[in-house]
Structure prediction request, 726 residues.
Amino acid sequence: MLTNLVRGLTALGTGAHIGWLFGGALFGMIGGVIPGLGGPVVLSIVLAFIYHLDLTAVLCIFLGTHAGSYFSSSIASILLNTPQHPESFASTFDGFPMSQRGEAGRALGISATATCIGGWIGCACLVGFIPVINYLPSLFHPPEYVALIAIALLLVGTLGTDSVSKAVVSAGLGLLVASIGPSVLTGVYRYTFNSLGLYEGIALVALALGCFAVPQMILVYGTASVVARQDMFGNEIASTEIAQIDRRAFKRQVLQGVTETLGHWVSLIRGALVGVITGLVPGIGAFAANFMSYGIAQQTSKKERRPLFGTGIVEGVIAPEASSLSKEAGHMVPVLALGIPGGVGSALFIAALTIKGVRLGYGFATTYPVIPYEVVWVIALAGLIGTAAALALAPWLARVTVVPGPVLVPFILALAVVGPYIAEQTYFDVFEVAAFAVIGFSLRRLGYSLGSFVVGLVLGPTFESNIFLTHEVYHGWSFLGRQPLADALFVIGILILILRGMQFHADAKKAREPIEGDDVFAKAEMMRRRQHRRQRYPLFAVIVTVGLLAIALPMAVYALTHWDFATSAMPVIGGFAASAGLLWRLPQEISGYVHYRKEKRELPPEPQPSDQLLVPVSGGSDTLSVPVPKRFPEVVEKSWGRHGQYTREVVGFLIFFALLGEVYLLGFGIGIPAFMVVYAMFGTRRIFHGLRSRTIFAVLSATVMWAMTVPVFNLLHLTFTPLWHL
Prediction:
């Protein structure tokens, strides 16, 4: 073990690999501090550029980006109280109150130290698990793999939605899309429609960029506001002024935070271990890990200190931050040993290894004995690099959080078009990005789980092969009662469905309870928010539900009636699972739309750009309209007018399709800069009011994208000619 640990470190010792490691960590740092770019968006962009790198370089840039983003993602939470990443929600409870007291440097010092040391503790635990990686798969047979994948799909799906049926639909659609292309068992081509581009299946790069990067930019463009005021669904949220940083006292406060963190070593180790343990269970997710760590810290603290949680105490910042990077180290155990991801980030990591031809699971540590240790070193070093750089630049990085979102849109959209072509050198993958952008936007807008969808697609081949092996070895359901571990895992999966369903029902019931309190303005605001949540996009929900049902059900029926079991198992399971969930949801969506139409006149009037809103509030048997000051201006959700978010989102899609057209007609060398100029002149009027400022931005953005595109194309000997000539 010690020899491989040293070899893993020396493998990173070349100048190129060190450069990729630093580049990944810094890119992750920048992506983490900008709420609109964090998590899957940044990783999906990185995924597009790994095809021409060696395996160690891929580990450096991909895991470096992933690990380098964790502390910087907490900067907006601590200074702005606007968490945009799941790992950062719990950090607001005590981090922001501390910043409000003028102790921003102290809070950032605590966060940085806890994140970095917690990550190292997680890496140390990962080193201890590496020797058993080869033996862990021997405990799992095909039925256990089927159950594990099902649990991962359900856990990831239910953490990202408000309904069990939506989780089932998301997972089913992922498996159904994974069946496009050749069967891994029989080689039969499925759902290719005689298109050469689908003969090799769905491109993972196109899937990642289409599901995450493009929809995020459409949502950002739709809100037409600063990125720091976008929530995870792209809607505006209540925003506060950035906490002031005393630059003269900043270094002293940071050192104080570092010292205090080391002084609370019990909380630090406990939080890191909670992160590792939750990371070992596929599908638990970052959100649950950080909240579990915070809750355990509160319950195990001294009785007199428990009420202080949420007021800005050291333990309240240490607990969630210590688990954020350590749980990623824990995630690597099921990823490397079983090929089962714990979330979207690890699913994309599996996709990256798949692209490089690395097969995870049984025999992985024997075939690649050094790679697990390289993973350990990359996570540890990238966490240190990203944390140190972000802490040093925190006063300036904090200002990045208020960069207007539409300024970022053309750059990310351009990368979303260039990336797939560089990866596969075919324009068909660019069209796949457009298709998945529509699918991803629709699912995300309606609250379905994109994470479960992606996990289903990535694990589809593994799921298919183990379903077939289970059927062949045990002849149907005869394995039940003969494989105790499989039985236990299936029971766990059923309990997850039941418990999450009960939780969703309780949450819905609580949302219908009367609003207590004497503050009429607070009651008005709560009533309006409830109505928005209850009737979000009712017509769009009906259209999408019917459309998906019209696709999933015929695909499942066709597979059942035309192919043998080995070929049809996955599309049948995925198609019928998605259809069942959609049939369950269809009456609810129709009822919601009918109810919305009946009460449309009683709903809150559409907010206009004014100082007050008139909102109906129920008070006993009376209903009154009260003026609510627009302390936190919000995006209009149900307006198609000039101030409506829907209109801007449609325009955002038109902008993306215009980019595709320009690249198709003019080629990348001319099409990308031309798009940047047109967008800068006409798409940034809300930001740059003067012609001069728009012209400067147009020239700079076109130059930057041309300088980023040309060297890569020249290095890979790719053509700049219009692609319709090829």
Q: What stands out?
A: Residues 230-236, 606-642 have pLDDT under 50 and may be disordered. The beta strands are 181-182, 189-190, 612-619, 622-629. The first helix runs from residue 2 to 10. The radius of gyration is 25 Å.
